[in-house]
Amino acid sequence: HKIHHKLSLCDVAKTYENYTKVISVRHPLDRIISAYKDKMLDHPNKAMSVRHIKKMLKKRKRAKDGAYAKIPTWTEFAEYLVHHSSSDAHWRNYYDLCHPCIMDYDNIVKVETLKYDAEQVLSAIGAHPDVKIGQANESTGKRLNKTNSDYFKEISRKTLNSLIDVYSQDMNVFGYRFDNSTFQTECDFCTDNSLD
Q: pTM of this prediction?
């Protein structure tokens, strides 16, 4: 990593031009819900979470009781991201984080089609047939029985539209959409269009 801090993005891309480069993505709106559940609900005491939580709670006009006394609500988190989306790698745009227009990725693996995409990558690189890739870190969000659509319905239309604007470049580059009438995330080339 220390070497890369001294190189430009173009130099890094050139350094890796003879490697098989893979980027793993998911619908940006599903990704930020996952980040909320993991960083705010499941692990609010980790240093990375505490820093952002303090900033979010500063904006509160009055104290909350119960479960959200010391952690931000989903609405507070969503509104924070509208203005601070680049403040952390867990919710920064892929476009700014991974530079897909500079780094010539050979494969895009979507979480929505992980099994198929991973098999294609493993086959392309000649991996042994016993090598498997799977999803290992699913956030529970304190086991709330809420779908991603439920989360989208909780925030104002203005905040939702602002989030869509913030993540529109990722959505366009990687073939993702949002259906405003059903509050469902959608992706091109996915058989199951929702991660609910």
A: 0.83
